[in-house]
Write a structure and sequence with these properties.
This protein is of the alpha/beta class. The protein folds into three domains: about 1-165, Glutamyl-tRNA reductase, N-terminal domain (Beta Polymerase, domain 2, 2-Layer Sandwich); about 170-330, NAD(P)-binding Rossmann-like Domain (Rossmann fold); about 365-435, no CATH class. Helix content is about 50%, strand content about 15%. It has a six-stranded parallel sheet with strand order 7-6-5-8-11-12, with helices on both faces. The protein starts with a strand and ends with a strand.
């Protein structure tokens, strides 16, 4: 049985998502180690969602709740979040709904910015990490590979993602009213990871020409050289933050890279009054300062794309600084209904149904194997009996083998039909009543009705 524990910008707070993004991603190994029936776990942890996809190997009809509770305890141990808090913030999805949800997520239909292009790569890397940790399973492999295929189908056959939709681009759209001319704006990019390239491309698309980069991990020079921009050394970082009109942070550091003290220190370092703001009016007067104070600081916009947050909230206490973080961006994100096309949803739905059909057919495989073994034993016994009576002709043996195949054809077809209809119990009851074949099914990969809801305490 496939199970999903999901927290995202739709059902959880950014404080919880921030903590899950730090420690939750390492919880897959704990989950599999702590609960024997869990045969696999893949965790997708991004800036706007945490999702644990679990493969539960239990007999058909067994409740998944013990596995769910064990998984929550593992996430709690990894993230430091209380288990009760996690139960309040995680949504449980099981059965057919798991595939449809992952396919929609991978296609960008569940993102803050519908159609964003980064999520497909993040899902793919989550599977690669699970492989490296030894926590994947054949059913999870099939699920995630099919999700990638579906994402490509959505991208190729619809307009979703065609404009390179992303959190970065939405943030810059929201910043338009604060930046009069991107070509003259002084921009500082903090971070050189996967998101940095997308951020730089989006900035250049807006017309930004004066861009510098700083890397807390010391990779600024390499990134700057390959992208044709200027690198900022560590000793100049505070001053460069103070000079910038726009700062975009997208680093994977667990601690704050920018805070109020760094900004005010940088302003002092370059001889700028850390408290007076250029362009102050009668309606918004500048603070009176001594005659020998330095020039007033320009208004600044800091765009924090990191989770955990790269920028401390106290920067908003510094005069002239405006902070645009992921929580604010998500509030202003376009409504899903205005972005997702019906074609994309239809592709996802069809792919999920196909995935579930295969899983449902496979759910009765043990019963079909048991029936085949029963019939083949009877066939082999009849062949042996014929030989003992002196009839060892190939024609007799071929006829008995053909008859066995004919007899099995209808039950095998009915097995697929009943499995797709969710009537596995009827098939099992029939086998037991007619032939005395008693089969206990393992949990199907997706062969139960879709379910979504809160987690019972």
């Amino acid at each position: 049985m496939l199970i999903l524990l999901s927290a995202s910008h739709k059902n959880s707070t950014f404080d919880v998502l921030e903590k899950l993004s730090v420690g939750g991603g390492s919880s897959a190994t704990r989950m599999v180690a702590q609960h024997g029936p869990l045969s696999g776990a893949v965790v997708v942890a991004t800036c706007n969602r945490f999702e644990a996809y679990l493969d539960l190997n239990e007999p058909y009809g067994v409740s998944p709740l013990p596995a769910v509770y064990a998984a929550i305890e593992a996430v709690s141990a990894s993230s430091g979040l209380d288990a009760d808090l996690l139960r309040d913030n995680l949504t449980l999805v099981h059965g057919n709904g798991v595939a449809e949800h992952l396919f929609a997520v991978t296609s960008g239909l569940e993102s803050v910015v519908v159609g964003e292009v980064e999520i497909a790569g993040q899902v793919r890397r989550a599977l690669e990490q699970a492989r490296a940790n030894g926590t994947t399973s054949p059913e999870l492999e099939r699920l995630f590979q099919r999700a990638s295929q579906t994402s490509r189908g959505v991208k190729n056959r619809t307009g979703i993602g065609s404009a390179g939709r992303s959190i970065v681009r939405l943030a810059l759209e929201l910043a338009e009213s604060r930046v009069s001319d991107w070509s003259t704006a002084r921009v500082l990019l903090v971070g050189t990871g996967r998101y940095a390239g997308a951020s730089l491309a989006a900035l250049r698309d807006r017309g930004a020409e004066n861009v510098r980069v700083y890397s807390p991990s010391g990779r600024a020079v390499g990134f700057a050289t390959s992208h044709g921009i200027e690198a900022v050394p560590t000793e100049d970082f505070a001053a460069e933050v103070a000079r910038a009109d726009v700062v975009v942070t997208c680093t994977l550091r667990d601690d704050h890279v920018i805070d109020a003290a760094l900004i005010t220190g940088g302003r002092n370092e370059i001889g700028m009054d850390p408290f007076e703001i250029a362009g102050a009016t009668a309606d918004a007067p500048a603070r009176l300062c001594p005659a020998d104070a330095g020039p007033a600081a320009p208004p600044q916009l800091i765009i924090d794309l990191g989770l955990p947050r790269n920028v401390a909230p106290d920067v908003t206490l510094v005069p002239g600084v405006e902070l645009l973080d992921l929580e604010t961006i998500s509030i202003h994100a376009p409504l899903e209904e205005l972005n997702a096309t019906s074609d994309a949803r239809e592709i996802v739905g069809k792919a999920a149904r196909k995935f579930s059909d295969v899983a449902e057919e496979q759910s009765l495989t043990p019963a079909v194997v048991a029936l085949r073994s029963y019939v083949f034993e009877l066939r082999d016994a009849e062949i042996a009996r014929a030989r003992s009576r002196g009839d060892s002709s190939e024609a007799t043996e071929a006829a008995l083998r053909h008859l066995a195949g004919v007899l099995l054809h209808a039950p095998m077809v009915r097995a697929r039909e009943l499995a797709r209809a969710g009537e596995q119990d009827a098939y099992l009851t029939g086998l037991d009543a007619l032939f005395g074949i008693d089969v206990t099914l393992p949990a199907a990969g997706a062969a139960d009705a879709a379910g979504t809801g809160a987690i019972a305490s």
